[in-house]
Amino acid sequence: MPDHQDIADRPTATAAVATETWTRPAPGEAQFLALLRADPARELENMARRAQQLTRQHFGRAITLYAPLYLANFCSGGCAYCGFAADRPHPRRRLEPAEVTAELAAMKAMGFEQVLLLTGERTPQADFDYLLANVRAAARVMHEVTVEAFPMTVAEYRQLAAAGCTGVTLYQETYDPVSYAQWHRWGPKRDYAARLEAPARALEAGIRTIGLGALLGLADPISEAVALYRHVCALQKHYWRSGVSVSFPRLRPEAGGFTPPAPVSDTQLAQIILAFRICLPDTPLVLSTRESPALRDGLAGLGITRMSVASRTTVGGYSQAAVHATGQFAVSDERDIATFCAMLRQQGLDPVFKNWDAAYRVAGEA
Predict the structure, then answer these.
(1) Residue 116's closest CA among 140, 142, 92, 89?
(2) Percentage of residues in the chain with pLDDT exceeding 90?
(3) Residue 4 resides in a domain
(4) 201 part of a folded domain
(5) Residue 155 maps to a domain
């Protein structure tokens, strides 16, 4: 297995994508910025109508559903805003193979065919080999397996793809270098460039889809949205055969009691999402259970096309009550699957648990 320190030997292609994220305005950026700055009292309703029209045109009425599975809460990072940061006092654990099997079986019984596997930053207890083994285990059960973990090398991402991983989610957290240095107090995550370039490394390695996002509340939301938009456009230009999705996580209460320095209102979040849909009409947009039921109901199909449901942010928690109940952050939408799907159908939307078949994966170690 390659030494993860060789992330420092960054391929020219991925560094070029990262540079383009910052130095070149993206196509449609002027319209995007105008939408972000529009008066919501006058323009939000018009934006919503246009966004819904584009969503129906490109995605129909489908809302793809998935659930996260937290494999471990060990972390080497010092993120000031995260419930899993290394200085949080709650007990640490990881799921062992039998527990992972039980969790996946429970999720499968709930109807899930897509799972997002999560860990903290790289640690000896939850390192690349641990993640790789769990990707293999999940790929034997689920049709679509994605991961949200630490930045990796091209060689490591290539191994994940061969094991059955089809997607990687990696939020930059904040695109503002000053804020990034302030809130990432220690650990490998302090390497801003290594994180910024990781999505390109994943796509270069053959990962089918990449999920991007900024953690809204850490820095000026308009600046964050523009930087995120540029990042998406740069990856779509260089890796046009691959897929890019965009998430809109807002800071939620967590064990450290972090107070967002740049809070984002419901109205501003909706405006950001609608601007992305209008300017990136065929890009999947994701909204998690961080958000309230009312907000999620309103944005489903209005721009958002992929949503988590019945989520647990503790280690495990699907097959039985989580042994340690401290999660990474507080979930806002706690509805069960039946209730959530009933809401979607009432709005004329179609909940979709499977939009990818394992048979399409390249034969590998899975």
Answers:
(1) 142
(2) 79
(3) no
(4) yes
(5) yes
CA–CA distances in Å: residue 191 to residues 83, 181, 185:
20, 9, 11
Average pLDDT estimate for 32-49: 97
Q: Where are the beta strands (DSSP E) in the chain?
A: 62-70, 114-118, 144-148, 165-169, 209-213, 243-247, 285-287, 306-308, 350-352
Number of domains in the chain: 1
Strand-pairing partners, residue 115, are 67, 145
Q: Which of 36-45, 87-96, 176-185, 303-312 has the least mean pLDDT?
A: 87-96
Global pTM exceeds 0.85: yes
In this prediction, residue 341 carries a pLDDT of 97
Rounded to an integer, what distance in angstroms lies between the CA atom of residue 276 and that of residue 244? 13
CATH number of the domain enclosing 146: 3.20.20.70
The candidate with the shortest Cα–Cα distance to 298, out of 266, 256, 338, 328, is 266
How far, in Å, CA of 258 to CA of 248, rounded? 19
Q: By the 8 A CB rule, do 142 and 110 touch?
A: no
Range of the domain at 71: 16-358
